[in-house]
Amino acid sequence: MSTETPATEAPDAYHDLLEKIQRISNVQNAAGVLGWDQQVMMPDEGTPARSKQLSALSAISHDLLVDDDIGDLLDELEATDLDDEQAAVVREVRRGYEREVRVPTDLVEEISSTSSEALPAWKEAKAEDDFSKFAPTLEKLVELKKQYAEHIDPDRDPYEVLFEDFEPCLSLSQAEEILDEVKATLVPMIDEIRESDVDLAVDAFEGTFPEDEQDELVRDALDVLGYPWERGRLDVAPHPFSTGTMFDARVTTRFDESDPLGALFSTVHEFGHATYTLGLPDEQYGTPLGQSRDLSVHESQSRLWENHVGRSKAFWDLFLPTFTDHFPETEGVSAQQAYEAANQVYEDNFIRVEADELTYHLHIVIRFEIERELISGDLDVADVPETWNDKYEEYLGIRPETDTEGCLQDIHWSYGNFGYFPTYSLGSVMAAQLYAAAEEDVGDLDGQIREGDFDALHEWLTENIHRHGQRYETNELVKQATGEDFTADYFLDYVTEKYGALYDLDSA
């Protein structure tokens, strides 16, 4: 563990910097609420005004950050004796400043307005199963983001530059190394599972499950897990997400009347995100110490709660009676059968957010490879559907028949979020390492989950991850929490043991 520098009286320049950064955070948080509203509450025809509102806030935030005064304050503080927390704040502000100062304000505005207009275009294209309705906007976003990357660093791989918007502390090469390890283990494991003669209870939750009752079910799940409703809310969105601050961390889900587990796990997933946000220190609101580290760490929290908690046998020992209270037709399902249904490996699932825990990562690899080709110029936007379908056939043995279940299923490209997808798999890998360390420190987590006691896990995650905000960079944060370097070993051991037992695999 590292030795912390005792707190020192902050110089005036530091207070001045904090005041400016807090103002920027408030502008960004206001934009976040408008973005939430656009997906959840806004009337269908509100886009023209909303795109201008978000564009203006993006420009204001950008201009505030690249102001000469902030550059001068950062230079002054560079030669000042700061404690560890103060130095971390200055480091993070400088990281953002040095990127943003290279990007013209008009480009920031154009990216924001194009993204706002892209959202309804994506929704329409998905609803009508017609990629051509989204393609022109996607093509524009690809070009804008390439310009953005070139402004930041014209001498580097533009995808690497874009990846740093979501994961600024792990190198792309480290991310690729981890993804390669995951892929090398999962591909043969999935093949072995598909050849297995084991019959899991995959039909345990077949039937029709009304949306209003599913809504009550997932609210009960949030209650069980400890979601503080006084600082959050649950709504429905086309693509589940969580957003907000430590004072207001909202979650969304979506419902399919034939798939109650889909709504349950997406809600638990977003709860994990919200728990991280809510665990940030109140007193650091508006500063880097009150903001999440990055998306890999954020995804580690959502994947930990979704997979290590929500898909565990212990959780189903606890939660199955609640499930059957809402859906009495499942009364004959045992906790073991529920566990098997929750962890089946699908042979024909096309949708990433509905994927099982293993094939999920091949969905990520496909998106990662397509993004790289789009940004490098090796793939034309018009060819995305065919390339997407070819890769699904190659990696998963299935071929989407529609754009809706293929390349239009994810919302991320409508935001211009190229470089985002790898953080999902990185987060899953990190989740396994963190969960193992938590279990080592606090004891029998399965037993606590079975009893509905999540306090120790909440406290461990808050103490070791949430409360630090951006104090540590990603690798150091993982080492502080677990005592070890960030590694894929725990994830690979976890899936090998879990799915080896479920499917009676020789490799387990």
From TrEMBL:
Its BP terms in the Gene Ontology are:
proteolysis
Superkingdom of origin organism: Archaea
Going by the UniProt record, its keywords in alphabetical order are: Carboxypeptidase, Hydrolase, Metal-binding, Metalloprotease, Protease, Zinc
Which InterPro entries does the UniProt entry name for this protein? Peptidase_M32_Taq (IPR001333)
List of catalytic residues: E270 (proton donor/acceptor)
Task: Describe how the cofactor binds.
Answer: Binds 1 zinc ion per subunit.
Q: Does the keyword Nucleotide-binding apply?
A: no
User: What residues bind Zn(2+), as annotated?
Assistant: H269, H273, E299
- GO terms for molecular function, please? metal ion binding; metallocarboxypeptidase activity
Query: Which reaction does this chain catalyze?
Result: Release of a C-terminal amino acid with broad specificity, except for -Pro
Record's function text: Broad specificity carboxypetidase that releases amino acids sequentially from the C-terminus, including neutral, aromatic, polar and basic residues.
Similarity comment: family membership: Belongs to the peptidase M32 family.
Descriptive protein name: Metal-dependent carboxypeptidase
Native species of this protein? Halogranum salarium B-1
